[in-house]
Design a protein that fits this description.
The protein has 196 residues and is an alpha/beta fold. The chain has one domain: Rossmann fold (3-Layer(aba) Sandwich). Helices cover 20% and strands 24% of the residues. Helix 1 crosses helix 2.
Length: 196
């Protein structure tokens, strides 16, 4: 079980590591929608870089279920070119590694200076592709339902990964950094709009 305090501390450590590694460079965080946007929000606040840019890439590889289909579909593309920039892909979880590998290969075709990956979680036991995660929060070998104390599951994208668009989850089931002030964390709609 990972407590909210443990996760928050690790996110701050990741931010400090990234800030050190990319000092003096033009870093672009490519946030993989939709599951990682909450992790990415905390991560970007922990990265003390003046030239930090954030962009989003919508990806679907799970379809309506919880098992990766092995086929990656881009549902929302970057808003600006990344040629010459250092790119850090931000994922909530690297499961099979197939999506992460696809994204690394895809983004390299766009001429960035470098491409790296940061993931809050990795499930090495489920890996179907060899992938190096440059910045990793936690490697876990447990089921989706038991990752964080008092939560339903972080790997649901903190309530954003399921296909049901409007189910509301009481904030008591999530760490403090996840929920909105209204007391509930609504799930995200299947398009880019977020219902808070």
């Amino acid at each position: 079980m990972l407590s909210a305090e443990t996760i928050s501390a690790r996110v701050r450590e990741l931010g400090a590591e990234i800030a050190t590694a990319y000092a003096g460079k033009n870093l672009v965080l490519v946030v993989v929608l939709k599951g990682s946007f909450l992790f990415a929000a905390d991560l970007c606040r922990a990265i003390a870089l003046p030239n930090l840019r954030i962009d989003f890439l919508g990806v679907r590889s799970y379809g309506e279920g919880t098992e990766s289909s092995g086929v990656t579909q881009i549902t929302y593309d970057l808003s600006m070119p990344i040629a010459g920039d250092d790119v850090l892909i931000v994922e909530d979880i690297v499961d099979t590694g197939l999506t992460a590998l696809y994204l690394i290969d895809l983004l390299r075709t766009r001429g960035p200076r470098s491409v790296a990956i940061c993931s809050l979680l990795s499930k090495p036991a489920r890996a179907r592709a060899t992938i190096h995660i440059d910045y990793l929060g936690f490697a876990v070998d447990v089921g989706y339902q038991s990752l964080i104390a008092d939560t339903v599951s972080l790997t649901l994208g903190a309530g954003t990964q399921y296909s049901t668009p409007t189910k509301r989850i009481p904030k008591q089931q999530f760490p403090a950094w996840i929920y909105a002030d209204g007391g509930f964390l609504p799930r995200v709609f299947l398009n880019i709009g977020v219902a808070f």
